[in-house]
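Below is how a single chain appears once it has passed through the pipeline. First comes the sequence as given, then the structure the pipeline wrote out for it. We keep one example in the README because the format questions we get most often are answered faster by looking than by reading.
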Amino acid sequence: MSSKSLIRVGILGTGIFANESHLPAIESVKDLELVACANRSKDKAVEFAARAAIPEAKVYDSLESLLDDPSVDVVDILLPSQFTLGAVKDAIAAGKPVAFEKPIAAKLDQAKEIVHLARSTDLPVMVLENFVFWNSLDAIKSVLPQIGDVVYFSHYCTAPFNFNNQYLKTWWRQKPEHVGGFLSDGGVHQVALFTEVLGEVESLSALTVQVRKESGDVDSLTSTLKMKSGVMGTFTYTSAVSVPRMNVLRIHGTTGTIVYDFSDKSNSTITLFTDEYKQGKNVEFLPTTDNGVPSEFENFAAAVQAKDKSLLKVPIEKAFHHFAVICACVESAKKNGTSVPVEVP
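Resulting structure:
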């Protein structure tokens, strides 16, 4: 692959998110070309290939066949998280950069091994965490100095349970092997959001509960956090309650407050409160209407083209931390809310 050639992508896992998000995102990135796909159910791969204009000769039923294809430069993996480790290991062994969906793994020991694998190679290894690419985060960081020293924050995210959620029908979500089920599946997004602005979590105390039997595991948490910076905070997350959806990050400093309301992602707002703006000042930014997924692949493509994994906006250690925070919440809850440290790789 020359520095100016298209990066040829092989996709492993051709389910819902591959069709609805990865396919249009990859097609939108000028440096990427989707050339092959694989699924253990080859019929699903054939259906995906028809939508993606992939020749039938480039449709496979195994990762091994996909990696053996010399026309595939990089691999995009969408598998149940308990299978991610093996797939990442095989991709690296084949000398192919790899991007894969969050959470980083199903268990913390698997996540640690993925970190060690990623550190052992110069190949870009990227966990696809789209919330990090939201324009709103740069806007928040741009006004953060105006509220002085950050003292406290609250990140509150509740959503009505959707009985018609198509993801509920996937077998690996009905009987989750990944820690906390939907808590790690969706909760890592929220951790990614507030840690991108405020830094990493050092320790926490949490309680969890399972509200809906359809969730397959605990599906709601509330926690108190101590950040490595010394800032205090709270984090509440559930998608198992009722209307309305409420997604709000509040950051309180010595000279002001920032309120980010993304309950409606298409009409999210950032409001700055200071002595000068006692009634609040609207912070202008362009909302991310594509949920950040195309930007993930643009970033991955840039790192692959430059052969420089340091260009990745979500380095493997960052994705590990997102997951480790959720794991710590689940662990703390099992100990009746005892404070626990967030593990490091």
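The radius of gyration is 20 Å.

See the next section for the split statistics.
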